[in-house]
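Lecture 7 notes: from sequence to structure.

We start with a single chain of 388 residues. Read the sequence below before looking at the structure.
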Amino acid sequence: MKQFPPHDGVALAFFINPLHTPSTEYPETCRGILSLAAHRGALATIRAWDGYEVTPLIRAETLAAQMGLETLWIKDESRRFGIGSFKALGGAYGVARVVAEATVPPEDITVACASDGNHGRAVAWGAKRAGCRARVYLPSHVSAARAEAIEALGGRVIRVAGEYDEAVAQAAADALELGMTVVTDTAYAGEEDIPRTVMQGYTVMVEEALEQMGRDRPTHIFVQGGVGGLAASVVAHVWERAGPPLPTVVIVEPEEADCLLATARQGRPTPATGSLNTVMAGLSCRHVSTLAWQVLERGARGFMTVPDDAVFPMMRALASGLAGAPVEGGESGVVGLVGLQAAASDPDLRSALGLNEGARTLVFNTEGATDPGLYREVIGEDRAPRRG
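Now the structure, written as tokens:
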């Protein structure tokens, strides 16, 4: 029997959110950020795109049994629109809205963004399909393979010395000077309209998962952190769509990029305390999205960090067929599952979160092999899932 990667008793940082209000209705104040009304527009638009397909929802029964859970669902985004990440739903939808609302032809529009890789690829792909141009600002840690994937889609890559937030600042400054439109997935002072649109695109993935579950509903959701846009989209859509009580939602971050956990502890947007040096490159973010935090501050039950050394074993385990069939999980893609494994292996957390034999848990494999060379190095050429 294939076994879960061993949990070696790593001391986890975990914070139970004292502001959590799972039994209340979805707050009216949050509907200005993410709403079912806006979701319907995103869903109609994205489902009309060439190449749209519902991504798989895998029921990992053996894995659930090993963790002592009733059910584990894995929403697999590794093939989304051929670019290998859920980000296609947000970045490309943001570009589509910019072009649709513009008063000039697409060829006169340039969109810009900062990215750790996947969002930039989504924006470049969205620009290509919409007929406009894209400039993508990448911080120094982003791999050459991810930069090349953006350039292959026609995006112009600008390297920025420093962290993701330096790339955000450079993209904003250049956009102001050059007349570009920033399509960002993180909200900050003066930039909130387009992040709402990008986050709304992510809710298409959540809606697919709920439709695939039918009458079943998750009791627990473990979801990646980053700036919080994905997590907020998951929380908001499930909260408004299914109504209270909200599932127990746990946000999972790298130890070295813990801005959401730091924010939850302080009760206000707070920078990450770590170095941002992590193999989970797509989650290497110093600051939270201000819009995302408004949803998460009452919708998330807990915040936790996981170590880098738990990631590669999980990637290898999924590639080996742990979920019932080989799954291509990238470094940031497997993080929710890593967090679930760690929580389920910790008696105190297991009890505090109600992770028992009745737990029905949902995680998102948010990316596939978006850095193919690194993926092959981790998995081994002969064990890597083959693309059909």
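Residues 249 and 300 are 5 Å apart (CA to CA). Keep this in mind for problem set 3.
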